[in-house]
Amino acid sequence: MSRMPVSQVLNCETAPAEPILVQGWVRTRRDSKAFSFVEINDGSCLANLQIIADQGIPGYEDVLQLRTGASVSITGNLVESQGKQKWELQATSVEMLGNAEEDFPLQKKGHSMEFLRSIAHLRPRSNLFGAVFRVRSRMAYAIHQFFQDKGFVYVHTPIITASDCEGAGEMFRVTTLDGEELDTAPEKDFFGKPSYLTVSGQLEGETFACALSNIYTFGPTFRAENSHTSRHASEFWMVEPEMAFCDLQGDMDLAEEMVKYLVTDALEHCREDLQFFNSFIDKGLIERLQFVSERSFERVSYTEAVELLENSGEKFEYPVEYGLNLQSEHERWLTEEHFKCPVTVYNYPATVKPFYMRRNDDDKTVAAMDLLVPGIGEIVGGSQREERLDVLRENLKHHDLSEEDYWWYVDLRKYGTVKHAGFGLGFERLLMFVTGVANIRDVIPFPRTPGSADF
RNA sequence: UCCUCAGUAGCUCAGCGGUAGAGCGGGUGGCUGUUAACCACUAGGUCGUUGGUUCGAACCCAACCUGAGGAGCCA
Questions:
Q1: Would the Cβ of A228 be found within 7 angstroms of any atom in strand B?
Q2: Where residue A86 sits, what CATH number does that domain have?
Q3: Residues of the domain holding A205
Q4: A454 falls within a domain
Q5: In terms of domains, do A168 and A216 share one?
Q6: Number of domains observed in the structure of chain A
C-alpha cells in the first residue's frame, strides 16, 4: 500500500472503499477512556488529519506513548467526522516510527519568531513555516513558468566571480590562501587572482541577453554588508531578467507584469496558506494582494516623486532634495501613504547610480527604476543599460573603474551593441510581500545574517 | 558602523532593594467524541556574563556577550 498525502486525503469527495495508508508527524494527541484522537501532519498541506485509534487495535500501546513530534505510520478507513472537520481516519493499525523525546521544543502554543529561528531545523514542522515554505516553492515554480512562457532562456551565471558588479555592495572573499599571502600574494590564490561570491549575475546576464535576446537568472546572491534590518540577509535569492532590444519602458512593464503574475498565482494556488497568514500574522493580506493583482501600478519619475514629497506637508527625518537618494521613509510615504499601492519610480539622478545605467538625454538622470511595495519598500531595482561605447567608457572613468577589469563587458558595446535593459527582484522580499511575514529571516530556510550562520 | 530596546523554568511572561512566581509544555493519576480538550498532584531556576554599590541585588551602576527594532547600504 502506498502512502497517501494528507492533502489528498482531506480533498476526497467520497470515502475510498479500501483502507489507506498515511504517514506523518504527530501534532497533538487527546485520550479518551477507550480510544485516542491523534492529529498528524505531513507538510502536504496546512491542515492536520485526525486519527481515531480505538483501544485494542495493533499498536494501541504505542499510541498512548505518542508525544507531539513523533513520526507515525497509520492504516485505516476514511470516515465522515462527527466533529468539526469533514474527514477523519478510523485506524486499523498504528505504528510508531520514532517517538519524540520529552523535550521536543515545538509546543501546540504559539512561539516567538526569535525562538523558532533558534530551532530552524524543526520550525518547518510548525503551521506558519510549513505554509511559508510551500508558498516559497510555488513562487519559485511560478517564476520559471512566467519566463518560460514568454520564451526567456534560463541562464546559470557563476556563483564565484572575480568581477565586482560595482554599486551592489560588499563582497565575500573566496580563497584557499591563509595568513599573510591573502594580502601579499593574491596571484598564488586558487584562481590566480582575488575572487568573490557573486553579488549579482547582471553583467554576465547581459552577455547572454546580447546573444539569446531574452534571458533570466534565478539563484543565490551574497552580500557581506553589515546590515541589521528585517529585510537584509547575507545570502538571498535573486531573479534577474535581461532583455535585448528593450528600453526602460519595457523593463518597467515586465517588472510590474511579473509582480502581478506572481501575486495572482499565489492567490490561485496557495489559498489555504494565504488564509492562514491572513488570520494570524497580517489581517489585511488577502485584500491587499487582490488589490495588487487587479489594479495597475503607479509610475512616477524621480523628479515628480521629489515634488510630491516636498509638497506633502510631512515632516521627514531626512531632507528631500533633488540629487539625493530617496530614504526609506520617503519610499514608504510614497507607496504606503500617498499612492497606497505599488509604485515604480524612474529616471534617477546619475550621481546616485552605478556606471552601467544608461544616461538620459537630459544628461543629468539615468534610465533607472525601483519598484516599491507597501510594507517592504524596494522589491525590484533595474535599469536600461548604457549601450553606447563612448558613454560607457566615460562612466567607467567617472566611477574610477578600469576598463581592463571590464574588458568583456565593454566588448558587448564594440560588437553589435543593442539597447537592453533588466532588473533584479529580491525573491525573499517578494515572499515577505506575498505572505505578510515581516522578517526576511523567516522566509528563507536557514538565514545567514552578520554573526549568524547556524545550521 | 551608528541609535534604541530586551535577556528570569523547555516556551511565553510577571516580579523592579528584603525567602524565585504563573500559564503552557514534561511526569503521574482521573474524566470526557475530543479538537491550543478539561481537572488534580508533581518535577523543574548560579534570574545572559564579569565587576561594582549596599547589611542585603533578579531589581541600582559599568563593561562585555547575545537577540530584536530602526538608520545607512541595497534586493
A1: yes
A2: 2.40.50.140
A3: 123-442
A4: no
A5: yes
A6: 2
Which tens digits make up the pLDDT trace of A24-60?
Answer: 999 999 988 889 999 999 999 999 999 999 998 999 9
What's the whole-number mean pLDDT along residues A336-351? 92
Per-residue buried b or exposed e for A303-315, using 16+ beta carbons within 10 Å of the residue's own CB = bebbebbeeeeee
Based on the number of CB atoms within 10 Å of its own CB, is A322 exposed (0-12), middle (13-18) or buried (19 or more)? exposed
- Work out if A351's Cβ lies within 7 angstroms of strand B: no
Q: How confident is the model at residue A168 (pLDDT cuts 50, 70, 90)?
A: low
Q: What is the mean pLDDT of residues A225-236?
A: 91
Are A17 and A146 in the same domain? no
Identify which of A207, A216, A245, A200 has the alpha carbon closest to the alpha carbon of residue A147.
Answer: A216
Same domain, A292 and A363: yes
> Is 0.95 exceeded by the ipTM?
no
* Cβ-based contacts (< 7 Å) between A 311-350 and strand B: 318, 325, 327-329
Looking at residue A126, what DSSP letter applies?
Answer: S
Strand B bases with any atom < 7 A from protein Cβ: 1-3, 10-13, 23-27, 30-37, 66-75
Nearest to A392, CA basis, from A370, A415, A411: A411
Shortest CA–C1' contact from A35: which nucleotide? B33
Query: What nucleotide is nearest A222 when CA is compared to C1'?
Result: B75
Among A247, A242, A291, A248, smallest CA distance to A267 is for: A291
Closest protein residue to B75 (Cα–C1'): A426
